[in-house]
Structures are given as C-alpha cells and as structure tokens.
CoA transferase subunit A (Buttiauxella warmboldiae), 239 residues
Amino acid sequence: MAGLDKRVASYAMALEGLRDGMTVLAGGFGLCGIPENLIAEIRRRQVRNLTVVSNNCGIDGFGLGLLLENRQIRKMIASYVGENALFEKQLLSGELEVELKPQGSLAEKLRAGGAGIPAFYTATGYGTPVAEGKETRQFGARHYLLEPAIQGDFAIIKGWKADWYGNIIYRHTAQNFNPLMATAARITVAEVEEIVPPGELDPAHIHTPGIYVHRLIQGHFEKRIEKKTLLQGAADADS
C-alpha cells in the first residue's frame, strides 16, 4: 500500500495549528542539526507563552535564541544553557521559567514519551535538587527517582534526506535529539536538505520512519558553527 505524501509547500503550512501556550520539542544539539527555518517561522508567527523542550536554547541571535529575544518562550526544559547570555539573564530575573534536566534523563523522558511509557525510575539525580518533589524508591541497594515522560504538541526536527513519505536519514551527529523528538509529539514537522522520490532510500539506513512524521518541507540552511577551533598551523594559514 502506498504511503501518504507528507510534503508541504510552505513553512506557514508546516506549522499550521501552532498556538499560544503549546509545548514544542526542538531537535538539535548546540547549533548542530537544529531546525533553523522552522524556528524562524515560529518567530514570524508571534506565538507566545510556549514551553520549549530542547537540549539547549541556541545562542544569542540564532536558533532558539531568536525566540528568547522575542519573549515567546515562557518555560524552557533543557540540559544545558551555557552559551546563551540572554537565557541566563531571563532566568536570573525570573522572566523565564527553567527546568534543568540531566542530559541522559532528558533523552530518556523523550524516548519514554514516544514509546507511550508514562514514567520511569532512574538513579541519576537522586540525593540532589533534581529529586525535589519526586517519588523515590529503592531497588536492591540503590535509590531511584521517578521521572515523568515528556510529550509535546509539536516537534520540529531537522534531517539530511527524506522521501515523500517522511522517512528520514540524519547526517552524523545531527541525529542527536532529533529522532527522539520525532516520536514524542502530536504533530511532527521535519525540514530536510533533500527530498527524494519513494524507493530511493535504503530502508536499512532510515533513522526515523515516516509513520512519526506528519509534515515535511525542504529548506536551505545556514549551518552556523558555534565555536571554530583551528590547529595553530591551520590558523596561521587561515590568517
């Protein structure tokens, strides 16, 4: 049986239905594999009071940092915030609600959400402020805390190549949080560098099956480098 063609013609169509107060799962790690054009469309739409779940919040002036600048994020659930001065400022002023999670716990909360598992026990964070207010339990000699799963209204992800049906391949470390986000939302929107006809992708190489993807668009990407580090010889040649 033929699959459904997931392609949409515009970014406005890709994020149709996104409203104030929703929870958005955003793939990427630092600036690697971020859905930069979908983020720009969220800014253009001026939706407010969003809860955003992502490993981090971009940098000043790019990625999710654009939504911070525009005061569109009410709450951020993340594992790392160190590269964004505005994030720090809004956190310390109380303007932005922040829920910090250990990186592995954040990943597992998303995986569980995608698998329909409501919560899971983990030893990570036991005995620290992360455990405050959470149910704890002892298994064997170790103590564990109960972490609820995460699910979102929209997931915005970035892939390398996809077919019309939304089967996606990621390139190298751009896999990061993107496959997890794709499974854990009511509506998953993917932007990719190339869309090919059905049958051109090796099924064994597909990372996210199209059943998880609802809308698909081909974009052009700036792909900024967050930090550029050169060997001394290469730096001299570059100057």
User: Anything to note?
Assistant: The chain is about 25% helix and 25% strand. The first strand starts at residue 23 and ends at 26. The radius of gyration is 19 Å.
